[in-house]
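Repro:
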Amino acid sequence: MLHQDGQLEQAGALYREILGSDPAHFDTLCMLALLEFQSGRGEESLLLLNHAVKVDPNSAVAVTNRGNVLLAMKRYEDALTSYDRALALKANYAEIHFNRGVVLRELARDREALASYDRALALRPEYAEAHNNRGIVLELLSRPLEAIAAYERALGRNPGFAQAHYNRGNALRTLERYEEAADSYSRALGCNPDYVDARINRGNVLRELGHLDEALSDYDVALKLNPVYGDALLNRAIVLNSLNRHAEALASLERALALTPDHPEALCNLGITLRSLNQLPESLVALDRALELRPDYIEACVERSMLMMYMRRFDQAYADIGRALTLDPAYPEAHFCEAVYRLVTAEFARGWEEYEWRWQVKEAGVARAFEAPLWLGHEDLSGKTILLYSEQGYGDTLQFCRYAPRVAALGARVILEVQPPLQPLLARMTGPARVFATGDPLPAFDYRCPLMSLPLAFHTDLRTIPAETPYLGADPARIEAWRIRLSPAAGPRIGIAWSGRPAFRNDHNRSIRLEGFLPLLTDAATFVCLQKELRDHDRELLARHPWIRYVGAELNDFGDTAALVECLDLVISVDTSVAHLAGALGKPTWILLPYHPDWRWLLDREDSPWYSGVRLFRQPRPGDWDSVIARVAAELREPR
């Protein structure tokens, strides 16, 4: 009774008193061994069980308990010997088969472990823990669908089995069935709200699904439960970087590295974060340390190459890419980065070829399933119908729709599919027979080509870029409506756009706060905001400067924006869709670029081979928007 009531000290004293008078008292030896094990004294427990087995060599219970103690002490080979001996004494004992499976799994003898769990289940089909562990082994054997079935059998026996819900989530995550995985993790948390691993893994799949704020919430809850959980700090930083909250990401990584200074993944992500904060030398130190710790860390090789590109050290960037491709010749991110490096330095032939790897890079493009074959310039299109379709952002569509007339000139009937806000504008362009909005039913077609593969199909180089502008035009009725709306105007009408879409991965690098634009805005011109969406801090500032005309509520689609741009004398924009729209309309456009620009703007030139009316104003050093604004302001003061 003392033992059952948790009075271990008193119970132990009584057991020892009994053994003092009868050292071979079998039951007392077994009970004291159990007490010692419960008290964390494994060696003492093992000595008592060895004595008990000598007293009764045929006791399957004593031999099994000795195996359990050896398992807890991680003496796996010895534990296996004990379990095998116990099974020789009692072959129909399901728990022994189960524990034997646990030991075999620890010894990485997975197929034998699976056989042990199968024997346990043959003896006790309702054994939920055996179904669960069987699922774990099936996952290790790369049989995730069977693993899911095993977890579901465990849950059929015990619906409140949190670990089985969690493991089912892991298997579903392996299959990239993220919605179902999130549901399984949620069920695990319903059974055990303090299940930290389930909280973190749910955050991971929410991140994969793009639900970044929800993922961040899960990591924060996990850290409240365990403030020193390094993986939670690391994953939290990854999400914060995706949200362009780099300073917070840095703080999270510094906490993680304080716990584990030589954590390669944390160091690599530290390098990424510091690069985003334009702390380039510090970024290099972090990435070099990550690669020192793990020379085959392919992700760190690629990230280091990107840093070298940011620092304009292209020889080293290519060397890092070569190192990555030596580790894995088919690593998509390495090929994609090489494409960007080639394109930004105008090495178009190799660049366009490598750019086709974008379909295997999650952040770069999403491949769509079509029955029609891909056309990359090889097949004769005479009399054929081809679908050209958008794939990335609005600016990409506006830039590369210029190829549609060239495809039509090959004798093809061109149908063009674009994002819905662009459809009214692009429906007016020459070349396509029909322009559809994404999601509309499409007619039959013989071939298809994504818009950003067209430069490859046409072997585009600097000399052959289809640079004729304008290649887009706005609806005359909409233009006239805007002319009336904007009259009268003091001085030239100048459209401005200072920020892009906040969710864009590189937005922190390309966007400026409205307050940074204020030195450009004088009463010598009428300034019109070309942005439909405003960030909170910009909205507040704009309200204090009513002389900047904000018409976002009247911009229902790009047809409206194009008509508005047609009424302006100049557009000044950061690298966003407004810049591409103005360039495609042939409007004089000044584009403000970061030190490391997107590849399409190339390097070190003030004009663009893609748009004849564009002037480029570049940062002289990373993060230096003040110099750019000062130069643009000086240009605006020049008489014209």
